[in-house]
Amino acid sequence: MSYRLKAISRDEHLGFVAARSSVSHMQVPSWGDVKPDWRAESLGWFDEHDRLVGAGLVLLRPLPKLKRYLAYLPEGPVLDWAAPDLERLLEPMLAYLKDQGAFSVKMGPPVVARRWSAEAVKDAIADPQARWLREVEATAHEPGASDIADRLRRMGWQRTEPGGEDGFAAGQPRYVFQVPFAGRSLDEIRQGLNQQWRRNIKKAEKAGVKVVQGGYDDLPAFYDLYVETAERDRFIPRPLPYFQRMWTALTSEDADRMRLYLAHHDGEVLAAATMLTVGDHVWYSYGASTSRRREVQPNNAVQWRMMSDAHELGARIYDFRGITDTLDEGNHLLGLLRFKAGTGGEAVEYLGEWDYPLNKVLHKALNLYMSRR
After folding, report:
1. Strand order of the sheet with strand 52-62?
2. Which secondary-structure segment (H or E) carries 223?
């Protein structure tokens, strides 16, 4: 079968997303409004009967002084990745983006490769011989994932391997932690938490921690905690206008697309987090907390409130987003992995991000620049 690709309207794109149970929050039209330094466009794949069978949000980032672009489809596009004619789906995208002036295309197929149970992650952390999660025997291998990877390589796509001491690469995380909700009651989900999590939730309740849903005007309170968290956890914080723009863009598209939760105790906000929803997939997006009064467990309280609300919204997956791939006790991110593993969910490896160099010279120059940042 042959496919035709063209730009589609926001409404066409949203209609396609609405007909699917799970699409990344980075593959909805409003995400383009969150990224003003990129030019965003909605793409649609049409089959021989002129039916819309795929969609993708592409972000185009211009090179300084050149009308050439890096084309990026974060956690997308949304296609039938198991299709026997996958090549015929991707070739029109490359041709279209090349005509748009793209010198390189980066995408993140939403295809799961492997899964590790919470117990397997716990055992791996405790094993002094284990250095990387990727080297630990997975609990489950998703059928077809390795075949898709092989087909992409044969087409000329190059996988971006996890880099750095903590296993994170530039772009979107390849390893995430998810709690399956499908077919489970809220009580069953709570019973799936480890003893420490359940104890901490009770501590927060007993201490009088109140978790409330906030709005746009509460973003500065969230941001103050976020900056403190960035200093403590050694990452560069985004500016407040980014979150304000994110709120305005996402909630204008869907009132429940983004939510903000704040944990109050004795008149002070101790923790806050943002939650994103597309269909029946819910993400914990950004978290922030102060080092003060940690004994009242505000972080567990916020997470449990978000998990409870996600369950009420009909979520099939509660997604904690990225985790470190390293199992090194000396790494400051290992504590975050332990925290997420305590929910009783599973570590999930996606196929990762893939590059296609349309202009090999410019593509190589970009990679050299990124490696020196």
Report:
1. 4-7, 39-46, 52-62, 69-73, 102-107, 354-357, 158-159
2. helix 219-233
CATH class of 112-140+163-350: alpha beta
Q: What is the pLDDT of residue 170?
A: 56
Q: How many angstroms separate the CA atoms of 126 and 139, rounded?
A: 17
pTM over 0.85: yes
Q: What percent of the chain has pLDDT over 70?
A: 96
Mean pLDDT score, 125-135: 94
DSSP 8-state secondary structure symbol assigned to residue 158: E
**pLDDT: is 144 or 163 the higher one?**
144
Percent above pLDDT 90 for the chain? 85
CATH code for the part of the protein at 4-108+353-371 = 3.40.630.30
Q: How far apart are CA 198 and CA 200, in angstroms?
A: 5
**Spans of all domains in the chain:** 4-108+353-371, 112-140+163-350
Paired with 281 in beta bridges are 278, 317
Per-residue pLDDT reduced to its tens digit, 4-49: 999 999 999 999 999 998 999 999 999 999 999 999 999 999 999 9
Q: Could you count the other beta carbons within 10 Å of the beta carbon of residue 305?
A: 22
Name the band, by pLDDT with cuts 50, 70 and 90, for residue 309: very high
Two domains, one topology: 4-108+353-371 and 112-140+163-350 = yes
- Cα 329 to the center of its chain, rounded Å: 25
Burial 91-129 (b: 16+ CB within 10 A, else e): ebbbebbeebbbbbbbbbbbbbbbbbbbebbbebbeeee
**Rounded Cα distance, 345 and 300, in Å:** 15
Helix (H, G, I), strand (E, B) or coil at 137: coil
CA distance 279 to 282: 8
What mean pLDDT do residues 311-325 have? Answer: 96
Which amino acid is present at 252?
A: S
